[in-house]
Design a protein that fits this description.
single chain; alpha/beta; Aspartate Aminotransferase, domain 1; 2 domains; seven-stranded mixed beta sheet; 15 helices; 12 strands; 42% helix; 13% strand; binds pyridoxal-5'-phosphate
Length: 400
Amino acid sequence: MQTVTGYFKDAAGKASFIRKMFEKGLELKATFGADAVCDFSLGNPDVPPPAAAAAALHAIADDAVKPLGLGYCPNAGIPSVRETIARHLSRQQSMPLSSADVVMTVGAASALVDIFRATIEPGDEVVVPSPYFVEYGNYCGHFGGVLVPVPSKDDFSPDVEAIARAVTPRTRAILVNTPNNPTGAVYSRADLEALARLVDEVNAGRGEGERTLFLVSDEPYRAFAYDGVEVPAILPMTKYALVVGSFSKTLSMAGERIGYVAVNPALTAEDSGTLVSTLILVNRTLGYVNAPVIGQRLAAAICNETVDLSIYKRRRDLMADVLAGAGVEFQMPHGAFYFFPKAPGGDDAKFVDALLAERILAVPGAGFGRAGYIRLSCSVDEAIIERSRDGFRRAAEACR
Ligand code: PLP
């Protein structure tokens, strides 16, 4: 007998490369000690939250022990938090938003799941530039949605013409992620405007009874941009834009699970709030009920701060030096905290195994929809990056 659906048998199979790395990592750490392993496989932000988080948490603790201090809150979020985040996003997205345009969610992850629950019917399609964040397939797949990956260009910028060709009457969303996991690419204003125009044109051609095409922008790494590169605001580019974000990375509070969806006010007005009220409803009925209340208060108190981004910049520069020294080809990431270098010799599984022999953990690119590359996460100390130098050189030589 089958205890789970066919979907989950398949999904578990697809996720096995991450599990394999995780298990290998545990094994290596148990045998040689945690310090002997250079683990670049996980994206768990290790830089401490801003110092202001401590005072904010003390104030929250005092309020939390009052009646209902830890009780349920409205499904859309604590009203004062929603207002604060709406003001924060108005500045970030360069357009006035009110709390009616913002829904607080359980991280960016559940913001995306909410959007797909609200908009996807079985067989509907979500077009995504590849490589892409590995969970996207599950986020829409839970509701019968089908991810349609469209290979990005060699510099990892989106191929807008190929994306346009991939759009069909069943396409419900073009999903972009900038700054990008796994490539570190930051999409240009010109590319995003071209995607926004595409979405407007497609919607203009869809009749009254047909469903909307959205431009969904997943932006948990928005603050992580280096070298003066602009991270453009997408919300004003088209009324069909939905911006998803979170404080997991910018405030190093991934475990507190606070994110949001922001809807263009023009769309909220046009559909009389139907999309927003449906997002709020699914936030409840998918079982989240509301985003965690301590995390919401913390995010609102310090949303205008970030972790020390100079730490990530130094790690990026050091990792670039290590890879260049090993003769590994890569695009310099201008955002997020990942590298997506080419596997020397072209076989990502072989390179990952050679790195494992050097006690270096990396993830094969095939799992992100692009074989022949590997993903490295720089959410580790500079000392670990430095320590991996000789191992990278030997592993690269072994694969050439
Ligand atoms: N989107 C991308 C591209 C991510 O890399 C992640 C987490 O790593 C998420 C969404 C989910 O983030 P959150 O912790 O905000 O749910």
